[in-house]
């Protein structure tokens, strides 16, 4: 199976299937404009308190449905409807991607169950409730909680991540069975298509802020590139004495967008596949380490710079899944902390969007960057311009297709709301299931799946490369990313909810 | 003899320490890619016909866990101007 035409991979790659699944649900939600609620069956967990639940158990204390049209349904029926719809859609995608369908369905069912267990438990008030008034009520005080971690919606994310990591590192046999369905990149890219709808809604609410975020995100990414790649490449060649091809692949993996950059650069310089594959293993494991450390660190050290923190995350964490997951966790932790300290509730999603938008610019740019590198390699390094040529189609093959879904969702939402302002409210309400619970479900699936595929023992035996990666991350990438993000975004805070 | 170049498609894989190119009646292998290109060019008859040989890496050659991150490795074109 090779990439021959521009349509290659449309039915066989996760990247495209994120677009199809995301846009299909989005289009279904648009039927709300005609008065049809086709996505309101989506269920979501409620905030609950365990003594209250034990006192009088009811599923409706744990789950609630999104759409008013489905209010009469039993909570478990909506939960099952959510399971069947997502399993069916993703299984169709898995079939066309030629995954083992039986293993995928079984694996997805297990991951789905783990995800919901973490999501529900993480909404227990001792973990999530913040001691502050929201909408005139203070749930923490109203339920007379004696103690609480006050993690906000970050609690389910942390639980999901820990559950996934526990399986990936302590139950490796089971992790192997789940691996067919542990597709964090697919889930997160679908969530990012949903996030396009959020961005559409956010752009209407705060146009200048959204545009500023987009443009400065592009500029920050460009500036960061100018420093990251040459510094890491020089470090690899001069200090760690790596071969030219290994240094180039590793520099791209660390500096640009992780696995996809390592593979793209490996391809551009026609390296043996073992080089990008080895670097990719490093990237995946280090991205998890960053996901575990950075959201808590930024929240603790820079609590008054939410957008800077989000953008720095986007430039530092090197896989889409880990970056968006870290951005989502940062969003929840910072929002909870700010609410706790000031009583002000930031609008959810802006910090996450700053992390995702920055990363998207990096992803989009990788095709162009590696095309240029491929030309340099053929014409200057291998010096075979008369025999070998590289087609511009390489840019397209490396272009992250889920970005098209994200842009389509964002721009169509914006266009509909701008063209028919009288229907903007209906549009917002009709797509609310995507904007919140569906997006959160895909994020939760990502957290569990990314934990399952992360095996820290893979770092064994990679001594020199691990040292270089860690050094480059701590000394070059993280500090420069933060400085660049601070220059472009300092002082920006999300609008109040 | 010249004219419109003949278009040839080859699939490239990497396995057991060597590159392998196959298709259009050609099957060659070599550990070094530049040397493989020479073998590919030598595999076509010296009939004076210009050829554009599209060499495409098989997506399935990447480990399955990796393909969710990037499903394209590389393609390139070899330009052959063989002499009769």
Characterise this structure.
The complex is a heterodimer of chains A (497) and B (84). In chain A, 70% of the residues lie in helices and 2% in strands. In chain A, strands 1-2 form a two-stranded antiparallel sheet. Chain A contains 21 helices and three strands. Chain A has one domain (14-489). The longest helix of chain A has 33 residues, at 207-239. In chain A, helix 9 packs across helix 15, helix 13 (274-301) packs antiparallel against helix 14 and helix 15 (320-342) packs antiparallel against helix 16. The mean pLDDT of chain A is 90. By secondary structure, chain A is mainly α. Chain A has helices at 14-30, 50-55, 75-96, 101-121, 125-128, 139-142, 154-170, 172-178, 184-205, 207-239, 244-255, 258-268, 274-301, 306-316, 320-342, 350-381, 393-398, 402-419, 424-430, 432-453, 463-489, and strands spanning 43-45, 63-65, 388-389. Chain B is globular. The longest helix of chain B has 10 residues, at 33-42. Helices cover 12% and strands 43% of the residues of chain B. Chain B contains one helix and five strands. Chain B is mainly beta. Chain B has one helix at residues 33-42; strands at 6-15, 18-23, 26-30, 50-57, 75-81. Chain B has one domain (6-81). Chain B has a five-stranded mixed β-sheet, with helices on one face. Chain A binds chain B through residues 1-4, 9, 12-15, 179, 183-186, 258-260, 263-264, 266-268, 270, 272-273, 277, 280, 319, 374, 378, 382, 384, 386-391, 393-394, 397-398, 453, and chain B through 9, 11, 14, 33-34, 37, 41, 54, 56-63, 65-79. Strand 3 of chain A pairs antiparallel with strand 5 (75-81) of chain B.
